[in-house]
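Quick start: what a row looks like.
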Amino acid sequence: MEQLKTATTDKTTFVLDHRVSSIQKQDSGFIVDDEFWVKSIIIATGTGSFAPKKFPLQLDTGAAARIHYFIKNPQEFANQTIGVFGGGDSALDWALELAEQTGTQVGLIHRRNEFRGLESSAQRLQNLKNVEVLTPYLPKSIAIRNNQLDVGLKLVGSTELIHKHFDQIIVAYGFRSNNSFVKKWGVNISNSQIAVTSEMKTSVPGIYAIGDAVTYPGRVPVIGLGFGEAQIAVTAIMRSLFPEKTLTIHSTSI
């Protein structure tokens, strides 16, 4: 990428930790976020941007402020009663860290009796006196009462409903991936993936896509195939930019 003010030089700019918001098509290339000018673009976003799966209940402003999907500083939850919802490694790891490192009272709630995370982690949690494991339960109601979250939990396969009280809740239900953001750049997608040709070209001339972000007949999601698609895209770009040149391709040249 090249900054717009130096677009005519030979300078290459590497930009990390930058989220692309806008791409504007021009005759000679693209303007990215009104800051960079490029001749071609390769999209390699994998299965897309990730967002946590939300707590499955309607939340008012007060309750929503007590629902968390990440832990940055476990000490912020010390000396509280925390509900951890989920059954994978993230839920087990967070529950363990809070219970063992901060002495927090933890309620671990999962919809199945068996956990998807490490069995050893589940066993450690069950042996801790400040951890209550609640399975198989699903959240059915939530409200703030006496400055705590009052959560109604329904026993799976039964009409039984119990209520537990937490100061805050951590949700570890996993993530959803999505590539639909490329549609605003004019790129066509098919079933949340980017449709490409055999040369990795998208519906927008000059924009290419590779890896698990793409779809075409017969594609299988393996990493080795993605490496090959990168070579195909770069070769197609070189042929487009320098049609007068004869390209000699070797397997180790890219």
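That is the whole record. The helical segments are 61-64, 89-101, 119-126, 223-241. Residues 5-9 have pLDDT under 50 and may be disordered.
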